[in-house]
Amino acid sequence: MSSPTMVEPLVTNSLFILLMLWLLATPYVFLAYYHYAVRPDL
Fold it and tell me: Containing H/E element for 7?
């Protein structure tokens, strides 16, 4: 029912939100890797 002009902004916003979440989560992934793989005794 919805036209492509309504769908495209939703897809763009979803991809932008996913990119922002990935950028925010990346440092925590590296910290977790460093904590468990490099310094497991901490």
Answer: helix 4-33
Question: CB atoms < 10 A from the CB of 26, how many?
Answer: 10
Distance CA 8, CA 37 (A): 41
pLDDT at position 1 is: 57
Check if the beta carbon of residue 37 is closer than 8 Å to that of residue 30: no
Q: What are phi and psi of 38, to 5 degrees?
A: -95, -45
The helix/strand/coil state of 34 is helix
Q: In this predicted model, what pLDDT tens digit does every residue of 1-42 receive, in sequence order? A: 566 677 788 889 999 999 999 999 999 999 998 888 887 665
